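Duplicate of #3305? Posting structure anyway:
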């Protein structure tokens, strides 16, 4: 019981930090950092639950009798951001100029042109991006769950497995498959001289367009201020596929940093390889250690 209270207090502190960053006068050291989150990695896969169409985990949450979830959004962080953007709950900004607003109509028109230019997108590429066995497979070793979602045996798949969730999102956003593999985070790493602690002040979440064929480079399309999307993140479900006892909100998972992202940019300096990204991450950890030591 004591451990639960401690965990709850720690969570509240983290949420408080997210809403009330240190005063500028208390910034002993600060760096602008861009993280890239690969949503196909095992640790990150649950952020994009739209990739996890397995009946084992989605059937109960679509049953009106057994469904006790308080979350309105259950299709992952990407769908939640797109729906909130479409509904006008927040505005988008251009990744090239974060002071320039981008309307949903501009984003939608651009994305539909990409979809039209790709000749409909190709179902195979969308399926591969949608959580294959390599990244998002079931930890209990059940390949049989994946075959149903990829067009396998119809007789084994429950009739209601995917109908209430995935098709609605894909019908509303036919280009969704181009955005389901990566998410970009722009944040300030701040060393607070009063607390003597490193603080992560999240600024933006950015949608990244990924070419399924790998012919074109990844491109940031639209960014959202994190403080604008907090309410939507609070209302978005994070599923624990190993334990149905309790779910979490996306905001809690993001702010407690239950994800892995590699360093893409540090104060304007781009990391060109994964080895360089890891080196920059370790350098910042070492720098924080030296601040603590001396």
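Output from current build:
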């Amino acid at each position: 019981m004591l451990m639960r209270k401690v965990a709850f207090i720690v969570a509240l502190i983290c949420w408080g930090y997210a809403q009330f960053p240190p005063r500028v006068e208390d910034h002993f050291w600060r760096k602008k950092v861009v993280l890239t989150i690969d949503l196909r990695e095992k640790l990150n896969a649950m952020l994009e639950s739209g990739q996890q169409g397995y009946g084992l985990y989605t059937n109960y949450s679509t049953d009106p009798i057994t469904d006790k979830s308080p979350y309105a959004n259950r299709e992952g962080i990407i769908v939640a951001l797109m729906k909130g953007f479409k509904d006008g709950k927040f505005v988008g900004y251009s990744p090239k100029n974060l002071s320039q607003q981008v309307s949903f109509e501009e984003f939608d028109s651009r994305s539909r042109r990409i979809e039209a230019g790709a000749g409909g997108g190709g179902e195979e590429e969308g399926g591969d991006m949608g959580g294959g066995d390599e990244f998002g497979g079931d930890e209990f070793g059940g390949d049989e769950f994946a075959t149903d979602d990829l067009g396998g045996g119809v007789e084994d798949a429950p009739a209601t497995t995917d109908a209430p969730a995935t098709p609605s999102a894909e019908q509303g956003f036919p280009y969704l498959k181009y955005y389901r593999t990566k998410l970009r985070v722009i944040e300030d790493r701040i060393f607070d001289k009063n607390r003597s602690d490193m603080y992560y002040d999240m600024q933006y979440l950015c949608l990244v367009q990924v070419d399924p064929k790998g012919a074109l480079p990844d491109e940031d399309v639209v960014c959202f201020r994190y403080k604008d999307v907090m309410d939507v993140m609070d209302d978005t479900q994070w599923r624990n596929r190993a334990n149905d006892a309790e779910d979490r909100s996306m905001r809690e998972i993001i702010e407690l940093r239950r994800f892995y992202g590699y360093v893409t940019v540090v104060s304007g300096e781009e990391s060109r390889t994964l080895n360089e990204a890891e080196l920059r991450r370790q350098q910042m950890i070492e720098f924080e250690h030296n601040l603590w030591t001396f």
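Confirmed duplicate; merging threads. The beta strands are 27-38, 92-94, 97-102, 182-192, 197-209, 219-225, 237-238, 248-249, 262-266, 269-270. The longest helix spans residues 274-293.
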